[in-house]
């Protein structure tokens, strides 16, 4: 069996991961009842990818409050019933040898949209379509085709921090091993981080200290209730590629002020109408993750973006020195991405970690 970085186990706090391939959080828009209650789709989708060999299976953006859902069909975690629904998914994911991660999220001004409608460009649902009033740090939207958002009062900000913490407690009770805070892609935390949308004049805005306050309070509140043995992870847009907005230097700097965070997933983008970043392609976001790993060698850093093969993933880990890769669309196409990556890298039967039920998949091999 060859030695690879991709299939080397990793231990973070009390959690051991079997390899370095994570299922990226991906909204499924699957809850037709619009109640935020995870259903058999989440069980099947996440369960298949746990059986397919991912070491960490992360839920789609899971809203800490109903008004924070990206679409009306998103999963939420704002009540005990939501917790119970997710507990069933967690149990199955763990039974397949994978760790279960939850991505907690609040979309802020980007809430209440219909991402799958024809011609979709991030537009808000109308009231007749079931849309709702959205909130943002200063009533300024991150992209222009959204319905007007309302600036949050200080009380609303503090209540919102409480929503994150309460959702973290539910995530723990549901059995999740890893909690990922969604601070990327132009959603509410990112709306606080960047001066483009955060033009508040109180101490939740203004300078770097003010703009990072909402995130710092969320992290501190969550770390207080999230068990000591469980890793805490953050997903950032390492850069949103907008001049004068949130940069890789800011991402690296804020990590000096987030004690208790163990893992960072580095994505990009989400602010502004026109994309001005590097041409998307294999590994195009990895330099951002590499920079974070260089600046913060003690953090467990994962990268993401257009990783489509085991060989590419292995080479990326060797070349960049980062710790893991999140796989998005390639994992939609192929739930067995890790198992097939193992085959590609020369693991031979019986080392191919197909689910036990699929042992015939490798025999006879033709
Ligand atoms: C996403 N992405 C995403 N990101 C996130 O942080 N939370 C989410 O809920 C979603 N939802 C989502 C849905 C769908 C259908 C796609 C395709 C993507 C972004 C995703 O996690 C990943 O960063 C990108 O897809 C880039 O990785 P790939 O697809 O190039 O491997």
TrEMBL record:
Signal peptide: none annotated. Residues 6-343 form the NADH:flavin oxidoreductase/NADH oxidase N-terminal domain. SUPFAM superfamilies: FMN-linked oxidoreductases (SSF51395). The keyword Electron transport does not apply. InterPro entries: Aldolase_TIM, OxRdtase_FMN_N, YqjM-like. Its cofactor is FMN. Keywords: Flavoprotein, FMN, NADP, Oxidoreductase. This is NADH:flavin oxidoreductase/NADH oxidase.
């Amino acid at each position: 069996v060859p030695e690879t970085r991709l299939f080397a186990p990793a231990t973070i706090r009390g959690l051991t991961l079997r390899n370095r391939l994570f299922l990226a959080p991906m909204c499924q828009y699957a809850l037709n009842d619009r109640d935020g209650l995870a259903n058999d789709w989440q069980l099947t989708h996440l369960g298949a990818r746990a059986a397919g060999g991912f070491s960490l299976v992360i839920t789609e953006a899971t809203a800490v409050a109903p008004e924070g859902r990206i679409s009306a069909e998103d999963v939420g975690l704002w009540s005990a019933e939501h917790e119970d629904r997710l507990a069933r998914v967690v149990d199955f994911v763990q039974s397949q040898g994978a760790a279960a991660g939850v991505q907690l999220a609040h979309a802020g001004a980007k809430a209440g949209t219909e991402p799958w409608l024809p011609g979709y460009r991030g537009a808000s649902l109308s009231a007749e379509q079931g849309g709702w009033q959205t909130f943002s740090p200063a009533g300024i939207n991150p992209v222009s085709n959204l319905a007007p958002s309302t600036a949050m009062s200080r009380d609303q900000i503090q209540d919102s921090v409480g929503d994150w913490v309460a959702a973290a407690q539910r995530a723990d009770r549901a059995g999740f091993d890893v909690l990922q805070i969604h601070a990327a892609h132009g959603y509410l935390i990112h709306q606080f981080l960047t001066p483009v949308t955060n033009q508040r004049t109180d101490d939740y805005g203004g300078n770097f200290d003010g703009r990072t306050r909402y995130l710092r309070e969320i992290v501190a509140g969550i770390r207080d209730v999230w068990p000591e043995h469980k890793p805490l992870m953050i997903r950032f847009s390492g850069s949103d590629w907008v001049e004068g907005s949130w940069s890789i230097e800011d991402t690296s700097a804020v990590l000096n002020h987030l004690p208790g965070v163990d893992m960072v997933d580095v994505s990009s983008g989400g602010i502004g109408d026109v994309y001005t970043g590097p041409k998307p392609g294999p590994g195009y976001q990895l330099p951002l993750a590499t920079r974070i790993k260089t600046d913060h060698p003690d953090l467990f850093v994962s990268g993401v973006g257009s990783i489509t093969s085991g060989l590419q993933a292995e080479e990326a880990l060797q070349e960049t020195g980062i710790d893991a890769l999140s796989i998005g669309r390639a994992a939609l196409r192929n739930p067995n991405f890790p198992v097939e990556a193992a085959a590609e890298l020369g693991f031979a039967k019986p080392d191919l970690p197909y689910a036990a039920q699929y042992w015939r998949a490798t025999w006879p091999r033709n």
